[in-house]
Amino acid sequence: MSRKPFIAGNWKMNMTAESGTQLIKELIPLVKDANCDVCLCVPAILIPAMTKASAGTNIHIGAENVHWANSGAYTGEISADMLKEYGVKYVIIGHSERRQYFGETDETVNKRTLTALNAGLTPIVCVGELLEERESGKTNEVLDRQLKDGLNGIDDVTKIVIAYEPVWAIGTGRTATDEQAQKTIAYIRKKIGELFCPKCAEKIVIQYGGSMNAGNCKGLMAQPDIDGGLIGGASLKLDFAKIVNFDK
Q: What's the farthest any 2 CA atoms get from each other in the chain?
């Protein structure tokens, strides 16, 4: 079954309205003929400016997080309706940095994911193991828990994107080999088939996120179960266009 590739950038806490607008203007002509879906997930405060900068192009603007409540006393949080008001289509949920630094759990990932889906947003749900978990042979065990608990109660799992991000390869310059990434993402697809249905597993888009860059993207994207990338540092520069155009 054919799945359209999806390349998404994650700016994290980087860029300003000025520098972000400039980057998008330079990216637009470089990615306009891409054969994949393209998205830049940016800090919440930059969403209005980046939406304006990318208007009328094939670059979608996404968010880096969303709260599970529609409104209320949640100082500093952003609701799904707030994101939708500015044309946001995608939202990253459960990134390892959110889990590590901000108390994100499989339960809160699940709550955010269900809220995003109910609002018509497409969640990019992140899963992945720590270095010690991989070295001790617990990768599949960790993924089983994250997928079962994080995706609990979803009616149509094909409406989400999964990003496999080995935590040991994020921002470290250390990348899983093509074979490692393929093997683990194939396992994730198999697990989705068990939790939901085999046809769902064949349809769902699964990205690799872990120091994918212009130099290694072709090999990773050539793997049969890898449908795209969640790009960190390389999405902050024009190299992002080379990743988007991995097939050229």
A: 49
**CATH assignment at residue 80:** 3.20.20.70
Angle at 205 between CA 46 and CA 12, to 5 degrees: 25
* Number of structural domains the chain divides into: 1
Q: Catalytic annotation on 67?
A: no
pLDDT digits (tens, 9 = 90+) for 117-143: 999 999 999 999 998 898 899 999 999
Range of the structural domain that residue 146 is part of: 6-244
Does the predicted model carry a pTM greater than 0.85?
yes
Question: Would 177 be classed as within a structural domain?
Answer: yes
Count the alpha carbons within 13 Å of 103 in the hemisphere toward its beta carbon.
Answer: 0
Instruction: Name the pLDDT band for 59 (thresholds 50, 70, 90).
Output: very high
How confident is the model at residue 169, as a pLDDT?
A: 81
Q: Tokens 């994101």 belong to which residue?
A: 83
- Please check whether residue 1 lies inside any domain of the structure: no
Which of 95, 97, 104, 129 is an active site residue? Answer: 95
* Catalytic site residue from 64, 97, 129, 165: 165
CA distance 194 to 205: 16
The answer to the question of residue 178 being in a domain is: yes
Half-sphere exposure (Cβ direction) of 57: Cα atoms closer than 13 Å = 23
